[in-house]
Each structure stands twice: as C-alpha cells, then as structure tokens.
Amino acid sequence: MGVIGVSLIVVSFVYVLACPIGWLPRWIVDFKRGLGGAPAITEGPLTSTAKAEPGRDEDARDNTATSTARDEAGSATETVNRKAQGSREMPPPPRPMTAQQPPAIKAPSLPESTDEEEQITPKAAPAESKGPVPTFSLSDDAPSKPSRAPSASAWASTMPSSSSSAMPPPPRPNPQPPRLPQFPAANSPQIARGPAPDRGPPAGGLAPPSGGLAPPPTLAAKPNKPSKKVMLQPGRSPLDWARISGPSSDLRNLPPNTPYLRVTPSMLKAQNGRKGTDAWMALNGKVYNISPYAEYHPGGKGELMRGAGKDGTKLYGEIHPWVNYETMMAACLIGLLVDEPDGKRGSEMDEMD
Ligand code: HEM
C-alpha cells in the first residue's frame, strides 16, 4: 500500500507538470508558478492589473506556497480527488490571441520601499520614452535634425500642395504703397470736355493765384510798376511815425488851442513849403500839414512835396490809394478846404491841379 501511495503521488506530480495549463484548476497553476514553471496564463479575461501587479503576484505566490505546504502535508487521496475534479471540469482551450495581445501598460519599477504593500495599484508609465524637447525653427531652411513639432515653414513645405486641408501661407506684404485710382476716371465727363480753356492772365497784372481763381473785382489792383521807395533815415520808419503821431499829438505847427481852420485855395497855395513855410496838402476836402511827415514818407520827401500847397487827391490816388492817410495824418489836420469868399475857388483849384 505504501508503494502504491507513493506511486500515485509521483504520478500526480508528473501529470501536473505535463498537463496543459489551461486544463488545470487555478490553484494548481498557481502551484506550478510557485515551482518556477511556465508563466501563469489565467483563464479569465486578461486585465492589465492582473499582469502588471507584482504585488498580487507575490500574494499569489504566497498562496501557492501555502497550498504547496498544505498539499505536502495532505494525503494522497485528496490529491487524487482534486485530480479527478480537474479532469471533469474541462477548461476552455488556451486562447491563441493571448500571445498577440498588445503590450499592456508597463508596470513601473517600483522602488523596494517599505510602503510597497500600501501602493496596490501602480502608476502607469508613458508608453513612449521621453525624448528631447522638440525645438522650433523659424527659418525657411530645412531643420537640421528632425523634430517632433516642426516649424510652420517646414510644415508648409512638407505638406503636399494638393492637400485640401493644408492652410496656405499668409500673403506677403506688398512693398509698394497702394496707388489711388486715376481721377477723374477715364470715362468721366470731365475728360470728355477736354482741358480748361485759356482765359488769359488774371486782371490787374497780379501773379496768377495758385487756385486758378481771379481776384474779386472790388479789390483795387496794385499797378505793376517798379518800386520807388527810398531809404529812410534812422528813426524815421513808419513805426516811428506811428509812435509820434498818436491821438494826443499835435503836429499842425499852429498856436496851441487853435481850432480847425477853414482853408481857402489861396491859403493852401501859400503853404507850399518854400521860404520857411510849412507845406499843406488837401486830400478829399481836408487840409493836412505834410511837413512833419516828409522825413517819414516811404516814397521820399521829393515825391511828397509834389502835392505841397495843392489838392493832392488825384495824385495820391494814382500812386497809393490803399494808404489810410486819415489815420496816419490825424495829428497833422489843419482844417477843411473851403471856397474863396469871392467865389474864385473853382478856377483856383483847377490852376492848382
Ligand atoms: C499825406 C499824404 C501821403 C501819405 C500819408 C503817404 C504815405 C505813403 C506810404 C505809407 C507809402 C508806403 C506805401 C507802401 O509801402 O505800399 C507811400 C509810398 C509812396 N508815396 Fe506816398 N504818401 C502821401 C502822399 C504822396 C504824394 C502826394 C506822392 C506823390 C506825388 C506820394 C508818392 C509816393 C510814392 C512814389 C511812394 C512809393 C510807392 C512804392 O514805390 O511803393 N505820396 N506813401
């Protein structure tokens, strides 16, 4: 009997070792793994946790070792019964796809620390190895080394032109400034009318204005003549005259508090600036003493004295009608030009002119 029992035990061991794993119950498989046999292939669905948990694997080994010890201490009959039970339960054949399953998440190399038992679920590691940080290049040249994220230009150059999903590069800025369209337009009626007619030089002999418009007819035109202005002595500028001929000045050269005089033509003729007398001149019915102004006259003393002792209205108007004599000569006002008492004013005035 002892020999038979030992033989059964030996046969059971041989069967367990030689039998396909898929036909064996789980605890025998675990037992075989504990003996260092083929890697365990579970019957149930493969899960990454089952294959990637070394902690559980170690637990299984512990269970297997416990079972082994229990088996060794058990009787041969129990072993035979378990063998018979395993024979009756026909497990499914091993899946051929098991070996072709994609690699599951690689189990991280956990450090051999004391808290290994607490960390049951390992952290998944990235499938790809960490490479260098991709570099970006903005130059149009091809990148010297391949990078994971190429530059925009390199990407655009590598993209096929026929691809509809490729975004075209932005247009380059136009170096030339935009040009305005022709004005007037080619079909404009302004061109149909032709060029503007030549209306001749502007009236008055003035330089043609830039705007092409003629001066208003009410503006008196300045005669286009050479200037007859003279060099004035120092202190005899128009500004100096304005300073000495203010509203409170009296340049009549008459006795103080003398009222405005009624100047007859004979009186005016006698004031011609000769023989030490002042020169008077009538302008539009008013008589002025022009002697104080002679050194300030821009046209010179000689030109001014052409109207001394006379009615210079016509002469004055021929040269500079724009000059405001009433303001300039207010301090030199003698009085009003009146007719001769005997009615000779008209003929005398004609002679004076
Ligand atoms: C009280 C009477 C007069 C006053 C206040 C006066 C005033 C002036 C003034 C302010 C100017 C400068 C004008 C300018 O810069 O455009 C001037 C210029 C001139 N005046 Fe008189 N004037 C008087 C009478 C006369 C008379 C009677 C004559 C000649 C007969 C005369 C002949 C001239 C001449 C030739 C010029 C130079 C014009 C030029 O070439 O620009 N002036 N006068």
TrEMBL record:
Bias (Pro residues) ranges: 167-181
SMART domains on file: Cyt-b5
Biased composition (Basic and acidic residues): 53-62
Ranges where the record places region Disordered: 38-239
GO terms of molecular function: cytochrome-b5 reductase activity, acting on NAD(P)H; heme binding; metal ion binding
This protein's record includes keyword Metal-binding: yes
Composition bias type Low complexity, residue spans: 144-166, 204-223
Pfam families for the chain: Cyt-b5
One CC-aspect GO term: cytoplasm
Ranges for domain Cytochrome b5 heme-binding: 260-338
Keywords: Heme, Iron, Metal-binding
PANTHER family: CYTOCHROME B5 REDUCTASE 4 (PTHR46237:SF1), CYTOCHROME B5 REDUCTASE 4 FAMILY MEMBER (PTHR46237)
Protein name, as recorded: Cytochrome b5 heme-binding domain-containing protein
Source organism of the structure: Emericellopsis atlantica
